[in-house]
Design brief:
Elements lengths: L5 E4 L17 E4 L6 H8 L3 E5 L5 H5 L6 E4 L9 H6 L3 E4 L5 H16 L2 H9 L19 E5 L3 H11 L4 E5 L14 H7 L2 E4 L34
Parallel strand pairs: 1-2, 1-3, 3-4, 4-5, 6-7, 6-8
Length: 234
């Protein structure tokens, strides 16, 4: 049996994110891969010094009396019981702003795909409709859209800056107004009605009093990431 302390991975998908050099100091254990995780925690939980993953509930923390650090490979802490960790003197570290540009790039890529209707166009070509001189699916320029940003934090601001180069109008909502290059809407539902595309970047758990409702108004939007094309307000 190894004498190294344990680094516990709370989810199997995180294993590829751990550098090989970590194995020189810690024995890596993937909790979901264990035949009986509960029995292993009872027998070996005191040797775990680090937990790496995106989901660390209070019950898991309670099974690890010598836990020192929880490392989250992302920005969100919504599935980490930070309160229990603090009570046990456990530090919680996350990736902070490290992935914000990547997330914003992905959001803009999806925007381009939706606005330019890349999937319908791909199907139009694959069906051979272009051979019959049929018209391709209609699409509109990005510059004709009104982009609403729900939450102008690290990710929301990056999305706005990347969208700005395409033209169009940008406005945002957040629990607190702050200085920004784009106009602020104090009413989320009015922002949704104004928008032809709405980006949800707000951490709802942290600001429960401002949790936006699902909305089906004149803009045909719902705060669940759905997009329903309509005419822009221009």
């Amino acid at each position: 049996m190894t004498s190294k302390p344990y680094l516990l991975l709370s989810s199997g998908g995180s294993a590829s994110l751990i550098a090989d050099e970590v194995g020189d100091r810690f024995e890596r254990i993937v909790l979901p891969d264990l035949p009986d995780p509960a029995a292993w925690l009872r027998a070996e939980g005191s040797r775990v010094r680090i937990v790496f993953g995106t989901e660390v509930p209070a019950g898991l923390i309670d099974c690890l009396p010598c836990l020192e650090v929880i490392v989250v490979p992302g920005a969100g802490l919504d599935k980490i019981d930070v309160t229990r960790a603090r009570e046990q003197g456990v530090r919680v570290l996350n990736a902070g702003d490290a992935h914000s540009d990547d997330v914003a790039d992905h959001a803009v890529a999806l925007t381009l795909a939706m606005v330019h209707r890349l999937n319908p166009l791909d199907q139009w070509i694959r069906r051979g409709e272009w051979r019959a001189d049929a018209s391709p699916p209609v699409r509109r320029a990005l510059s004709s859209h009104c982009f609403g940003i729900v939450g102008l934090g690290h990710i929301g601001e990056r999305i706005a800056r990347k969208l700005a180069v395409f033209g169009g109008q940008i406005a945002w909502w957040g629990p607190r107004e702050k200085a920004s290059p784009w106009p602020y809407h104090a009413d989320l539902e009015k922002l949704a009605s104004w928008s032809s595309m709405l980006f949800g970047c707000h951490e709802r758990r942290r600001h429960r009093p401002h949790r936006p409702p699902h909305h089906r108004g004149t803009g045909e939007f719902r705060y669940a990431g759905e997009y329903h094309p309509r005419q822009s307000n221009r």
